[in-house]
Amino acid sequence: MILSRHLRGSFYGNPFVIGTTDKNEYYPVYAAFNNENSLTVRNHNGKVLNEFIIDNIYLYKKPSIEAKNLNRIGNRYEDLYHFFEDSIFSNIYEFIYKNINHKLYVSKGYISDVNDNILLILCTNSTELFDNENNINTQHLKLFVSNQFILDEKYKNVFKRINSKYISYCYKNDIEVVFTTSRKIEEQVFKNNININFSSITELTEHLKNDVGKNLFFGENVDSSEEYPYVRI
Questions:
Q1: DSSP state, 49?
Q2: I want to staple 180 with a disulfide (CB 3.0 to 4.6 A). Which of 72, 171, 184, 194 is the partner?
Q3: Which residues of 86-107 are buried (b: 16+ CB within 10 A; e: fewer)?
């Protein structure tokens, strides 16, 4: 199994890194997992997508790694697997290499480094992620892996685990695996048709309070449940 159907936690997005489904053939699996964190941007009409609407354009965000938005810290491989398979929180995975402490940010189908470079991201081209027996539909998936994850010596033990558990799963299940740079991954997954010109988070927040912002970004609370929690952007 590469991902479970469970969603644990709340999603906090980076408001400056946005993708839209009309501009990206594949988009992060966490964005398709629960469409309540997504919006149509067609005609700039902020219609909230639910789990059953798949043909409209919607937007999604890169996970935030701001300290205030981080959830758990783990240092066991079991923590790493749990964060990757289940959690839509951004979590910290800590590890030691050559007596130096290092960390990664891990959430559902997503791993990045401390500089917010994507090291690995599982993507999809469909919101129909699971069949009736809760098995993931592998034909819709693509895994992007950064060369940095392979070449940077400090990651070698973590990468061995990821390779053995998830990358090998992709090969066995005919899921395409693309090895490229972190920059190219972000360019391929987070293209958008929205022009954002803000100099600070405060300026963006003020924008989101006016009518234009309300048309572009979803700000309503959604009832929480274990499988479909409130997703915050």
A1: P
A2: 184
A3: bbbbbbbbebeeeeeebebbbb
